[in-house]
Amino acid sequence: MNLRGADLRSVYLIGADLTGADLGGIFLESCCLEGAIIRDANLFAANVRHSSFDKADLRGSILSQMNATFGHFWEVQMRSLEDAILVEADFRGAHTDDGLICRGMNLIWNTTMPSGTVIRGPQWGNGRDNR
Predict the structure, then answer these.
(1) pLDDT tens per residue across span 27-65
(2) Which end of the chain is less packed: N or C, by CB atoms within 10 Å?
(3) 90 near 113, Cβ under 8 Å?
(4) What is the secondary structure of the chain as a DSSP string?
(5) Contact 66, 86 (CB under 8 A)
């Protein structure tokens, strides 16, 4: 499925199967993708501000340069993000390490890690830890 660059504001894709989809540059602001299967998808430079991915499966997906400001990722299955904007993002209970989020030049500011700790920031990737 190719949704590259699509503007899908405020859509509900609860439980959707987007396996292998090209979502590069997609605009998914204020969307609900809870429980969605988004394995091996391309979310490069996606704007997912204010969106919820709770319990979604993002394993194998490209999550580089994503804007996840106010994104909600509770219990999501994922690996890591790189060069992403993670302002007020929430990864509580996500199936990944805090260290895989605090790397790759991500902008981290008031972001809740999988362990429940909050990185106050601002910090870039593995920069100084301002908890």
Answers:
(1) 999 999 999 999 999 999 999 999 999 999 999 999 999
(2) C
(3) no
(4) -B-TT-B-TT-B-TT-B-TT-B-TT-B-TT-B-TT-B-TT-B-TT-B-TT-B-TT-B-TT-B-TT-B-TT-B-TT-B----SS-EEES-B-TT-BS-HHHHS-TT-EEESEE-TTS-EE-S-EETTS----
(5) no
